[in-house]
Amino acid sequence: MKTIEIDDTESVLTTLVDDALNGNRCVITRHGEHAAVILSYNEYRRLEQAVPSLGWLLTTAPLEEDDLPVRKPARCRLLEL
């Protein structure tokens, strides 16, 4: 994977996009720290769809009634008004 400083990206942006379309990602750094990644839109969509939402995981989990521990009742403080 190619790495390039953010200050140097303006002059080679077209090349970076062409590389991404050919499957070659590029890491953009700022002050020596990783800041962003250039990748093709198709790869981005593939990665985005690869991670299921928590809601989907909970609703489709093959859990039986006794798989999860029983919740303890919440402790409530009595307030004087």
Automatic annotation (TrEMBL):
It comes from Rhizobium mayense. Antitoxin component of a type II toxin-antitoxin (TA) system. This is Antitoxin. SUPFAM superfamilies: YefM-like. Belongs to the phD/YefM antitoxin family. InterPro entries: Antitoxin_Phd/YefM (IPR006442), YefM-like_sf (IPR036165).
